[in-house]
Structure formats: C-alpha cells, structure tokens
What does this fold into?
Amino acid sequence: MAEKRFWAKLTSQTKPPPTGTLRWSAYKLVTRFNVWIYRRSDGRVGGRFDDAPICILHHRGAKTGAARETPLVFCGEGDNVILIASMGGQPRHPAWFHNLRAHSEIEIERDGRRAPMTARVTDGDERERLWQLMLTVWPTYDVYQSRTDRVIPVILCAPRSP
It folds into this structure.
C-alpha cells in the first residue's frame, strides 16, 4: 500500500471533533474557507484532499430548507457522482446526509460548474461495488468504517434535467 499523505494520516489517526464543541466550530470555519477558496479558483485551490478530488455538494436543510454547501471527496463514474457519508467514522451520520434524504434534488459543483443531480442511498451489491470504487480514491474510508458500528452510507448522484 502506498504511503499515506498528510490528510490521510491526520484523519486516520485522529477522530473528527464532536459536534457542538469549540473544535467543531473551528472545523466548520475551515470548511467554509475551503468552499470560498474552491469557488474563487474554480477548484484549482481546495479542490483536492491529498490526491482525492473534492466537489461542493449544494443541498437544503432537512428541517429549514436553508441552502447548504459541503465540500466532499467524490468519485465520478460516467456522469454520476459517488459520495460517502462517513463523518470520519463518527457514530452518527453527517447532517448533509439527513438533508439528502429529505431533499434528494441537489447540485454538485466541480471544475467551476454546477450540475443538477438526484441523490439516492445505495445498498446491497451496488453499495459494495461503489464502496470499493471509492476506496481507490480515498482508502482511509476503511479506517472510518472501523471506528463505527453504523454502516457508512454510499450515495449515488445521477444527473437530472435543470
């Protein structure tokens, strides 16, 4: 196995901060900065997590309907985009995952362009195949899975008409 780079080492050796803490607030601030710099550079800066590509997920809050933006590692498969709701192996799903379940019509931003898509949670053989594909992009997902009893969801985002 290839030597892990900076972010893979960091995220495999330390768990993400618990939600609602000061460290979580700092984490969210860094995430907002990532979105800001990504957008201004059309993904040239902030568009990689080590060697893994980053997209911006545009979604709506499950309860509020408020617009949200979340940078995530992704894998493209044809016109589809695959996402993993790992939250670093926390016991709970990330908030954006709950938002997708409530509002499946989303947009994915990559390379300075936004594409309308529909998100759905995969299962069975399809989930396993896409999980293995995502491991080629970000092998540390296996570390995250080992930290939690929940099955980490794999989301398939397919293009939809605008």
Remarks:
- The chain has a mean pLDDT of 86.
- Residues 18-159 form a domain with the Pnp Oxidase; Chain A fold (CATH 2.30.110.10).
- Residues 22-40 form the longest helix (19 residues).
